[in-house]
Amino acid sequence: MSLKRTAVIYHPDYLKHDTGEHPERKERLVSIITHLRETGIMERLELIEPRFAELSEIEYIHTPEYVRKAKKYSELEIPLDLDTVLSKDSYSVALLAVGGAIAAVDTVLDRAGSSFALVRPPGHHAEPDRGMGFCIFNNAAIAARHAQKKGRKRVLIADWDVHHGNGTQEAFYSDPTVLYFSTHQYPHYPGTGWLDEVGTGEGEGYNINVPLPAGTEDAGFIAAFREILLPAALEFRPDIVIVSAGQDASAGDGLAQMRMSADGFAALASIVSSIAEKTCEGKVAAVLEGGYDLGLLARSVASVLEVFMGREPEKKEPDELGPKVRERLGQVKNVQSKYWHL
Fold first, then answer.
1. Is 124 one of the catalytic residues?
2. Of 304, 306, 240, 311, whose CA–CA distance to 277 is shortest?
3. What's the CATH code of the domain at 129?
4. Residue 312 lies in a domain
5. What value does the mean pLDDT take over residues 153-165?
6. Signed CA dihedral, 161, 20, 31, 43: sign only
7. Which of 46, 104, 134, 272 could be cross-linked to 285 through a Cys-Cys bond (beta carbons 3.0 to 4.6 Å apart)?
8. Judging by DSSP bridges, how do beta strands 207-212 and 284-288 pair with one another?
9. DSSP labels for 172-191?
10. How confident is the model at residue 317 (pLDDT cuts 50, 70, 90)?
């Protein structure tokens, strides 16, 4: 295996976002970093320390009024909603999380290779004017705008978190320069992401939702990426690929009912990497979203990083798709074939 340059972006201050016994807790990152060190993977990675994002960068996506609210609520330790708790350090840590996503983009733009921002809090539920679903600022969406500020006109965001990225969808819903693709359990939190949500105005067709039934296994996700994302992305030809990489579709995660394995995430990473290789010199930047079983999360992140570094996923005969999954993929194709050659 020839080693491909891969960076991880991490800072111990991410642990200062104190959520107590909340599912989105500091132990998530501790488990990942510990696993990468114990397996020797960390030694093969370039470790990059992020900076704090500037307010002007946060406002690529979020309104000034909401940013002020997030800062004030953090100072007062008032939750943004029932799911999104804040401590005194949460606002500054959220700025550092955005900075981590920006660093992931800068790393792959400045020199060849891939990157993975191991950040918290996550981001893809954060809408322009509100935080929700454990998310304060939309790390991946801001990173996408940052890439465009640096001259990358077309951005693909592939979101394999088990929950629909309603915030990312809203940020780019009328924008033809960002192709947003999401696989997610449906119906499930936050209730958005049906297959007919395709974008509006000039952005119509640049929003691809694949709402999968509970119990979907590796084969269903892999088929969605191969049969829908791959042809659409090659037609779109992104200048950079950003992954909203939540590992909470893992079997046994606890916050959803999907059945993905670490090998399944490796297969998705391989498909995304192949898109980047064919369209933008392999430039793919992943940003951590969900994943709440500590062992499954750590192993799945490691499997993605191994693929980024050049390991080919294990070749095996794909499992048969269940009738519900096959029907859903067909429905998505019927909708999206109006916009892409699927």
1. no
2. 240
3. 3.40.800.20
4. yes
5. 98
6. positive
7. 104
8. unpaired
9. HTT-TTEEEEEEEESS-TT-
10. low
